[in-house]
Structures are given as C-alpha cells and as structure tokens.
Amino acid sequence: MDRELHPGNLTMAKSDSTMDAGGAAGTDDPANAAPEAAPDAGKPAAGTAVEPDDTAASAALSTAPVEDPADGGTAVPGSFGGVRRPGALGAAAWAAREGLGWARWFWRQLTSMRVALILLFLLSLATIPGSLVPQSSVDEVKAQAWKDSHKTLTPIYEKLQLFHVYSSVWFSAIYILLFVSLIGCIIPRTWQFVGQLRGRPPAAPRLLTRMPAHATWRTDAAPEQVLAAAEKVLRRRRFRVERSGSAVASEKGYLREAGNLLFHISLIVLLLAFAAGQLWKSEGGKLIVEGDGFANTLTQYDDFKSGSLFRADDLDPFSFSLDSFSGSYERTGPQKGTPRDYAAHITYSDGSDGSTRKATIKVNEPLETAGSKVYLIGHGYAPMVTFRDGKGDIAFKGPMPALPLDSNVTETTVAKIPDMRDKDGNKVQIGFKGNFVPTLDLKTGTMLSQFPALDNPGLVLTAYKGSLGVDSGVPQSVYQLDVSKMKQYTTKDGSPFAQLLKVGDTMTLPDGAGTLHFDGIKQWATFQVSQKPGDAWALVGAVAALVGLAGSLFIQRRRIWIRALPGTDGRTVVELAGLGRSESARLPEELAGIAAALQPDAPPAADAPDSADPAEPSEGARA
Amino acid sequence: MILAAAANENLAHISNYLIYSAMAVYTLAFLAHITEWVFGSRSAVGRTAAALTAEAQETTSTVTVTTRSAEQGGGTAVLERPKVVTRSAPGSRDIPDGPGAAGTSEKGDLYGRIAISLTVLAWALHVGGVLTRAMSVQRAPWGNMYEFSTTFGSVAVAVYLGLLVAKKNVRWLGLPLVTSILLDLGLAVSVLYTASDQLVPALHSYWLWIHVSCAIVSGAALWVGSASSLFYLFRDSYEARLVRGNDGGAWGNIMSRLPSAATLDKFAYRINATIFPLWTFTIIAGAIWAEAAWGRYWGWDPKEVWAFITWVAYACYLHARATAGWKGRKAAYLALLAFACYLFNYYGVNIFLGGKHSYAGV
Ligand code: HEM
C-alpha cells in the first residue's frame, strides 16, 4: 500500500495503487464487498468502466489509504541497495541504501491499514487471558490463592507474565506497535487532509453518465444561466463550489475526515492520559474509627500504592475526621441483610486555610478535595474496651481492631496488651482473641451474626498469657494474635476460659490478672484516598473520540458535478452526477433534490424524452 | 410501609404473569412464522436464478423521484423530477432481494402478517412485564441478570418493530428474532430468575440508568446486525453457487427468499456502524461510573476487559470494511465474532469469571 499524497488532479499515469478511487467507489459499500469486487492492479479501482479522467475526479475523496490487493506480492522487495560499487565506500553506501530501504519498507508495512487491522485483532486476543487468569494488580488475594492451588502451572504462567497481562512485555509490544502504526497513519493523513482542504473540488469527469448517480435533461435555458443557478443551489446547500469551463464541481462532507482524524488522535490522548495516571497515581487505604481523624501524609496510611514517578511530597495537604457512620440494610425478603445505604459523615479541611467543612461520603459519592478523591470502601464495628491490670491501672482503653468475616459482619477481634503488671507487680503480656457479633441469636446454635446491624451485639473473648512476640521486631498484623509462645487461661476445671460479654459487662481474668470492661461499640470505615493526574485528560480524550467517531460514521463525503452544454438540437443539455465515498441511498436522493431545485431555472423542455418514462425502481436502488 | 411492600409484591407477581403471557404469545408468533415459511416454500419462487441471468449484463438501474409541490393546487400536483440513474459498483452481483419468507404465496403472507401482529401483542405484554417489575422495585429494571435479560429482549423486539415501521426490509428477521427472544426469556425465567428487590449501594447511581440502558440498546441492535451478517454468509454462498451455474443447494428454497447478500451486508454494516458510537459511549459511561464507585475508571475487571474486547472487535470489523481484501465474508466473520464477545460479556463473565460486576446477581 502506498501512502504518497495524492492531490485531486492526479492522473492515471502515475500508479494505480496511489489512486484513492477504490475508497471513492465505496469503501464501506457492500455492493463492492463481494470477493470478486477487488479491483485488479491494472484497472482503476473506481469501476471497470471509469475513464482515466474520471479516476482523477474521484481521487482522494477521503484520506483513507487504498489497499492494493496485489500489495502482498509487490511489497516484498528484492534489494534496495541497487548497484554496489567496489571499495569500502561503495559497500558502505550500499549498506546505507539497503538499510534505509528496509526501514522504509518496514515503516510502510507497519503503518498500512492491513497491519493496523492485524494489530487490532491481536490486541483483542491478547486482552483475553487477563480475564481468565486472576491478575495480581486487580485482586492480589485471588491471584495468590490461584497460585497456591496450581503448583505446576504457576511457574510457567509467571514466565509468560500471565499474572500481570496488562503490563506484560507482549501486551505492551502489541499496543505500542499499534499506536506507532496509528501515529504513522495519522500524520500523513492529516497533511493530506489539509491539502484537500486547500485544494479545490476536482473538475468534472468527461463522462458524467459513468458516475454512480446521474441525471440529465434538456432545457431551453442558456448554459450560462443553468451553471449560475447550479452554483447558487450548491452554495445554498453548503457545498464547496468550483466553476471551470462548462461545468460546476462541488464537494461536501469534509467533516467526515476531520472526525476520523479527531477520533484517532483522541485515542492517543486517551493512551497518554492512561499512562500518566499509572505513573503518577497514588492510592492509599485508611481505616478510621468514629471520632478519629486522618491527615494526608504517607505515615498515616495503613497501606499505600503509587506509580513509579510519584513522590511523597506530591500528596495533597488535607485532613478529615469521621464523625459518624450509618448503614441501613434490607430487613425482609430473600435479600435480607443486603446493604442498602452506607454514609460516612465527616468533617474535613482542604489544607488551604484552617476552616473545616462537613460532608457525607457514600459509595458512589466520593469526597473531592484538594486534588484528591476520598472513597468509602468498607465498614465494620469496633468493640470499645477498657482493660485494667492486676494493680487496677488502665493498661488499654480504646477500640479493638476487628475484621469482618461475612456479609452479616461477624468479626474476629484481637487486643494485645504488651505492657502491664499482674497483681504481684510482675511485668506480663496478655492477648485477647475472639469474635464480635452485631446480631447474636443463641437459638441458632452458632456464634455467627444473623444480621449486619447492631440488633443484639455480643462479644466473645478468650485470653492468653505469655510472649506476644511484639518485641522481636518482625511486623505483626493487628488483626492476628500469635499464640505460639502463649498459654490460654483456663477455668478451675481446666477448660479454656471464655466469656460472652454484652455492652457494660466486665470479664475478670483468673489469677487476678486484670479485668476487661466492654464499654460500647463504635463503627469504623475504610477509605481509599486517590490522586490521579491523568483523569481529566482521559475524559477529554473520551469525549473527543466520541465526537470524532460520530462525525466519521454519520457524515458522508460526496462530490456533485453539474454540466450544461449546448446540445445538437440547440437546446441545453443539463447533466448532474454524484459520487459518494460510500454508495448510499442518500446520494441519489440528494442529487434528485438538487435537480429539482435547479428546475425553476432550467425547466425541462416539454418533449424531453428523458423525463417522460417513469421506470420501475429496481430492487437494488430501493435498498 | 407494610402496605407498600405488599403492593410491590403484587406488582412483582403481575410482572411475572405478564412475562409468561408474553412468552405464550411469542410462541404463537413463532408457529405463525413457521407456517409462513412453509407456505412460502410451496410458492413458485425460482426468481433469483432467472433474474440473475436477465440482469447480469445490465449494470444500471433507475429511480424516478417524484415530489409533491405544495405551490400548485394545494399539494396535489406532482412535479415530475428527472430520473436519477444509479449504477451499482462494479463486481457486485446485481441479484435482487428475495420476496421474503412467504415467497409468492398469499396464504404465507397472511400468516406472516398474523405472526407480526402476534409479535406486537407479545411485545406489549413483555413491555408491561418489564414496566411492572420496574415499578415493583422502584428503580430501573436492570439490576440483575433476570431483569437485564427481560429488558434486553423487549428492546430487541422494539428495534425490529421500529425498523418495520420505518419500512425497512426486515420482515425476514421475524422467525430468528422470535426464536431468540423465546430462548432469552426462557433462560431468564428458569436459570436467571431473581425475586424483585432493591440494589446494593454500589448500584445506586444515575449512571446505572445511562450505562446499562445504553448497553441494552447496543446489544439489542447489534443482535439484529449480527443476525443480518449471519444470513449474509448463507445467502452469499447461495449466490456464489448460482453464479457458478450450480443449483441453489439444499437450502436454496429458503435462501432464495432472503434479501440479496449485498442488501444483508449493507444492512448489517449500517446497524453496526450506527451502534459503534453508542457502544463507545456505554464504555465511557461505565468508566465514569466506576470512577465514582470504585475509585478508578479502568481496572481490568473481567466485565471491563470483555467490554473492551467487544469494542476492539467491532473496530476491527469497521477497519476490515475499509480494507480491500477484508471486505465481504471476512468482515462478516469479524462481526459475528464481535457479537459473540458481547454475548460472552453478558452471560459468560457473570457466570464463569466473576469479578466486581458479578453482584449483579446471576
Ligand atoms: C488504536 C486502535 C484503532 C482503533 C480503535 C480504530 C478505530 C477505527 C474506527 C472505529 C474506524 C471507523 C470509522 C469509519 O469507518 O469511518 C476507523 C477508521 C479508520 N482507521 Fe482506525 N482505529 C485504530 C487504529 C488505526 C490505525 C493504526 C490506522 C492506520 C494504519 C487506522 C486507520 C484508519 C482509517 C484510514 C480509517 C478510515 C476508514 C474509512 O474512512 O472508511 N486506524 N478506525
């Protein structure tokens, strides 16, 4: 396929494959779609019957390149270097010519429509594995679970980068090639389009009757008068009009090409915005209990992920505190317990001044402040407890970390008390472990929660004594108690010590080790704070792509010629012809409309044979 | 509160009855269409081959456009316009469209009309079912797969009836359409049924209305397009046989009654090209919604992945149409593949792959 520019007046002499006539005769024309429709290399593509000068008339009706079916055969070059002169200099010159030739050949291949099509197809194929194999970047836990249960496949998959398909070498290679191809396609097409805009509609072909839609009649009006009227009619319909000799040439629908270019450029904007988002993004998670606050610094996050070009001082300065959290749930019906509404009521300050504002964050309604967005991700309950040691001193007071296990918010909870004294004043470490249940129903015989709201909350705890292992320096999860170096408290009869507490109850450990008082319950919520620089551009790109696409698919580019010549009988022969980028029913209709608009100025002669026989519309024309 | 809940339960029951009644009437329409095809097969069709030989040489056809001019005598006078001669593109077969399912049989045509009337009736019941369901849950009727399927079916029939009203040549679609609607509803009421209820918080958003309604309209129209592509493939082989001078083959009798391959291909292209921007918008709307709900507009969730694959596949199809050597059958295969991606995204992802979107309720 050849990408040379073709101005509208190119003639046959050059090379058939540079002609845009194939596109002109209907690139998206199904009538052309039959396999045998592919024009031979030796014939002008617009139709076997089109005369040479007609080809010029239909040239460059779009900026889409013409795929020469013979391309596959001729594109394979022999040697680009030509004759090699003797000596080192000759060899070097030959190698340079050869290299350049190959580079140009490669570039032409890469930027051809055929390769674009193949790359697009490859892209859709390459996207599939990422939906079948769990992706670490999407769901780390799921990916790990998959790896654990597929011991033999995992190393192979890891080699193939199947756990992070969308950042893998092969996926990247495909889309990078596609976008290089895209850029290599857009640039020449843009130049060509600018050329078309500056050029003039190509002159009327010699035989207008050969065009896809055509009409003719005789009139008594003078040719000059007919042409002047034609110019007026076409201008009124916002055609670009060019008068030359006995004919008026006109063209319309350039927005199609503009739309198509805009669409493809927007794809590049979208890709860049996406890349920027990946490189500079930051995303942190934070659990906040009612009454507590958060300031946007790295150290405050529970977990934090960022793009490779992100720096810590890029974090937007703002802070907020969780005043209260409310959740409502379906009370009846088969979906009993399904959450209906979550709302986190917060007070925030955007860091610009000291003032604070109140806001509510819901699942679909993040807080937007100071360039960041704060999303509500999850929620749960935290039992509030006070632990007094053997001496009666408060060793711990506050929320116990708790982790929801199921949709009714049965939670596991843990408390670690590393620094306390027993009744004799000895330093000991104690750990509590158990479950918090917002709706306890002992009749069910389980300790699982029956409903996610706080209908009948209960806290079941057991306690351990020994080494918590917190001094070893290895980071520990706050949700887990390592009991490997601890001993569970037992009752007098030797069974493990455990107790069910309601709010206000107190649990007294054996041996007078201390007491734990269940003060109450607070709710907590987890938030995700994200900062994503590319988002605005992604939106701009998406909207532009949509606008461009609409222009590209709904606007038709077409040419209309009107010729008026004195006939042999002294009357004027008026000829109209239209040529569209695609053969559609609209072009003949438009032509008929223009013909009708022209008739007051060029009334058909009474005995004109042409307009007398209303023929039966054929099947093909009706479609 | 309790009263309202009871009213809603009632509405949900009414909705179910309406859907079952619609299925019954669709079944009658199905039988009527079958009868139409049966009568049609007895009519003397055999026109295509004759037309082929008669018209093969003639490459031009004419349209006479007449308009009424209001100036002369209150719009009664007919202004004769010059005829516009159109020539088909070179290489096309110039085979006219078939006469339709009924062939030349008047009885067949009658049954065809009955079938369409029944389809209209069934569609009214169907839409009633969808609307009462929406009223019973007081939200858009596409919060889970059952609702999505029933709404999808009603929109597909609406697209078909709309094209009929617009006088498009789509009557041949009747039988495949009714068949697939019956399949769709059958699956919905048996496998996918979910009792009417509210939505989980993540689905509370006006983007639900926008994103899902666009996805449904896109899917329904793309279904019509891909049916056309499929029949194009059949009809194209049939025409190729005729051109080679063979008889029409075992299915010749049926094929001869379909529109010509060129018409089917053009029709499929029109639909797919018109819907492609809407599908693009569907994905953009989904991304905006995901941004609000989950904090990222694109996260390679399986549903997103398959929406993207579907989109790229349709882009492939449009490119193929613009590339010599890829038009025709190859492009049609791409169109079918692209629609298969859409279907997989709809059923397959929810059932096999899960991900964030699967709470939409299988
Ligand atoms: C990044 C992926 C791409 C996507 C999603 C894409 C999408 C599209 C779509 C949807 C159309 C249809 C518009 C129409 O028919 O007018 C189109 C047309 C076109 N594309 Fe692409 N494209 C991509 C890459 C490319 C590349 C790499 C090239 C060049 C080698 C290219 C060249 C063209 C041309 C020339 C047309 C116009 C065809 C015509 O006017 O009929 N595209 N593209």
Number of strands of chain B: 4
Unreliable stretches of chain A (pLDDT < 50, length at least 5) are 1-52, 69-77, 608-623
How large is the count of helical segments of chain A?
A: 14
Class computed from helices, strands and strand pairing of chain B: mainly alpha
> Based on the structure, what is the oligomeric state of the protein chains?
heterodimer
Would you tell me the overall average pLDDT of chain A?
A: 81
General shape of chain B: globular
Ions, cofactors and other ligands present here are:
protoporphyrin IX containing FE
Notes on the protein architecture:
- The complex is a heterodimer of chains A (623) and B (362).
- Chain A has 14 helices and 22 strands.
- The longest helix of chain A has 30 residues.
- In chain A, strands 4, 6, 10, 11, 12, 19 and 20 form a seven-stranded antiparallel beta sheet that branches.
- Chain A is 29% helix and 27% strand.
- About 7% of the residues of chain B have low confidence.
- Chain B has one domain.
- Chain B has a two-stranded antiparallel ribbon with strand order 1-4.
- Chain B is globular.
- At the A-B interface, helix 5, helix 6, strand 1, strand 8 and strand 11 of A face strand 1, strand 4, helix 8, helix 9 and helix 10 of B.
- Strand 1 of chain A pairs antiparallel with strand 4 of chain B, so a sheet runs across the interface.
- Protoporphyrin IX containing FE (HEM) sits at the interface of chains A and B.
- Chain B: Its main location: membrane.
- Chain B: This is C-type cytochrome biogenesis protein CcsB.
- Chain B: It is a multi-pass membrane protein.
- Chain B: One of its GO terms (molecular function) is heme binding.
- Chain B: Pfam families: Cytochrom_C_asm (PF01578).
